[in-house]
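Batch 3, record 17
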Amino acid sequence: MSAKIQSVKGTRDFYPDVLAPIRQIFDAWRRVSIRHGFQEWDGPTLELLDLYREKSGDELVGQLYRLTDSGGRELALRPEMTPTLARMVAAKINALPKPIKWFCVATLFRGENVQRGRLREFFQWNVDVIGSADMTADAEVILVGVEALRELGLTQADFQVHISNRRLVQAILSAAGIPVESHGGAYALMDKAGKLPREETARRWSEAYGSAISYEKLDALMSVATLPELRAAVGAIAPATADLESAASDTERLLAILQDFGIIEYCKINLRVVRGLAYYTGPVFEFYDRSENERAICGGGRYDDLLGKLGRAGEPAVGFGMGDVVLSLILEEKGLLKPARKGGDVMVVDAAESVRPTLHTVVAALRRGGVAADFSYAHQAIGKQLKMADKIGVSRVVILGDETTSAGRVRIKDMAGGAEREVALETLLADPRSTLGL
RNA sequence: GUGAGUGUAGCUCAAUUGGUUAGAGCACCAGGUUGUGGUCCUGGGGGUUGCGGGUUCGAUCCCCGUCAUUCACCCCA
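Prediction for the assembled complex:
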C-alpha cells in the first residue's frame, strides 16, 4: 500500500457512480441559469498570483495553491471566480451590453483543512449580474439560487435564504456610535454569537462596544426576522441617518421584489449573516438547510466597489457562489440524488454466432439513430447476454435470432415486463426510438 | 496550525483478557443454464490487518513513531 501513490488530500476520484449525482447537480445549475437569461462563461484555472494578492491581501495567499512556471512567473490555481470575472469584464467593459448576466460552473482549489463540507478541490456554481445597482438584480440572483434548489427537489421545508445588508448593519453600528474602524471586530463577534454561550458573547460585546450600544439592544436588532420588526428595532435604537434610511429602504425593496417573484416564503431577514468577504457592499445572503446542521449551501451579495478596484471601470455587481460539496451532502441526506445509470437504452443480443455481422450493423445503425445501444463483444449463450442486459440496466433488448433475422425480422423484448414482440428490421432501423418505445 | 476519534477484502463489519491457516454479508467473476434476464443454489478470485519500529515464545489486539482519514477548533474568498 505504501508504495502506491495516493490521491491528493481533499480531492475526489470521480468514479462513474460518484460523478453521476454531481452531473445531476451541474445539469440543474445550467438549466436554471439559462432559463433565467444567464450566459455561461469560464476562465483559466491558472491565474497570476497577483490577481488574488491585489484583491484580498497576503493572508489569503497562504491558502492558495501556488506555483512558479518555467518563466519564473508566480501563478495560482484559482480559489474563486470573482477576480477572474472582474478581470475579464473589465477588459471588455465597453463592449458588453449591460446588465451582464453570466454564470459558470468551475473547479476551484483552496489549500485549507479538509472536513465535512470542505474539500481542497471542488466545484462552484457562480451567478453574477454586473452593471446594475438596482435591487432587482439582487433579487434575481437569489431567485436563480432558489429555483436551482427547487429544481433539485428541495422545498420550502428544506432550506431558507438568510438575508442581511452590509450597509444596513454598518449604518446601525455607526448610528449607535461605533466607529467604522471597529466594525470588523463587531462583525466577527456577531458572527461568532451562534457558537459561543450567550453570556460569553454578551461579556465580550460589553467590554468592546458596550459604551455605544448594549448587547441586549444589539441582540434584539440582530434577531429581527421580518421587515416590520426591522423597522421598529431600527427606530428604537438609533437616530435615523440618511445611510440608515437608504439601506433600510433597499432592504425593503429587495424583499418586495422577492415577494413578486413568489419566493418570499423561502427568505428571512437575518442580520447576523456577515460573510467573510471584505468586498461586500450591500445585501448579503446565505442559503441554509433548515436543520442548520451543515455549512451554508450558498453565499453571496452585492460588491459594487470590487470591479473598480481591479479594473479601470467600476461597475456595480451582485452574485453568489454555490459549491457542490455541502449541496451534495444535503441532497444525499434527503435521498434526492438519483443513482448512476449504468447502461443505455437498449442492448442488442444475438442468438447465434452467424448473425454477428448483422448485429454489428444493427448496433451502429441504432446508435446513429439516437439510441444508446450496447452489445456483447463476443457471442455468448443468450441467457448470459440477457443477464448482462439486466446488469447494465437497459429497458429494451433487441434479439437477433438466426431464422428471424434471415427473414428480416427481429424481436424486441421489454425488460421490465418480459413481453416480446416481433418487428421488421427495416422498421426498427427506419425509426428506432419509437419502434423501441423509448 | 491545534485537539480528539478511527485505520482488517472494492464496501459495511467480525475475530474469546495477546494464541493454530484473519472470517461473514454485499459487490465482483464463473458454473448450475448450448435460444431468454431478475430469484435461488454452488464455487472462485481478492488481505504483507495503513506503514515502520518496539514488548512478547507468539501481536489485528499492547507501546512508540509515521501516514491516511473523520469530526471539531482556527479560518472561510
